[in-house]
Amino acid sequence: MSLTGEYVPSTSGWVREQIEAYEASGGTEASTLRETGIPVVIVTFRGKEEGVVRKIALMRVEHDGEYALIASMGGAPKNPAWYHSLVRHPDEVMIQDGPEPFDVTVRLVEGDERQTWFDRGAEVFPTYLDYAAKTERIIPVFVASRL
After folding, report:
1. pLDDT for 27-53, tens place per residue?
2. What CA–CA distance (Å, rounded) separates 59 from 121?
3. What's the per-residue H, E or C state across 79-139?
4. Cα–Cα distance list, 81 to 10, 52, 62 (Å)
5. CATH class for domain 13-146?
């Protein structure tokens, strides 16, 4: 399904540069969250309203070939913009975890399944626990599965 259409890079310089470097190197460069050493994946998706192609880097939380996409936004009181895009276009998503991107479908998980995936995320990036403690919202978790 390869996403087509106009690509609009992030307005955040370091995010844009990381994505460009990751993609250009096939995932061998810019593959961690800055200097933390914690791996990331690149998520490509259709924008919720404008329909353009967007890309973000998220923590690599993989289990049995599926990935958690945790909408933490640093514990902010609202969900990140990309959350709404994935809700609206769950079948127009790709993940790059290494040299080549692949198509996925995403689903929002709740209850025990959400907690299991959130815990997996916190094992990779313990700061998710701090984010959860500082917000009143339940941080949404999507599970991405290959098509």
Report:
1. 999 999 988 899 999 999 999 888 899
2. 8
3. CCHHHHHHHHCCCCEEEECCCCEEEEEEEEECHHHHHHHHHHHHHHCCHHHHHHHHCCCCC
4. 12, 13, 22
5. mainly beta
Cβ of 15: how many Cβ atoms within 10 Å? 14
User: What is the pTM assigned to this prediction?
Assistant: 0.96
Rounded to an integer, the average pLDDT of 121-143 is 98
User: Given a cut of 80, is residue 141 above it in pLDDT?
Assistant: yes
pLDDT for the residue numbered 77: 98
In this predicted structure, what is the pLDDT of residue 1?
Answer: 63
How far from chain centre, in Å, is Cα 87? 13
Whole-number Å distance between alpha carbons of 80 and 65 = 25
Least confident of 19-23, 31-35, 113-117, 141-145: 31-35
Do residues 103 and 93 lie in contact, with contact meaning Cβ atoms separated by under 8 Å? yes
Q: Return the axis-axis angle of helices 111-124 and 127-134, rounded to nearest 10°.
A: 130
Helix (H, G, I), strand (E, B), or coil: what is residue 21? helix
Q: How many other C-beta atoms are found inside a 10 Å radius of the C-beta of residue 131?
A: 17
CA 13-19-24 angle, to 5 degrees, is 125
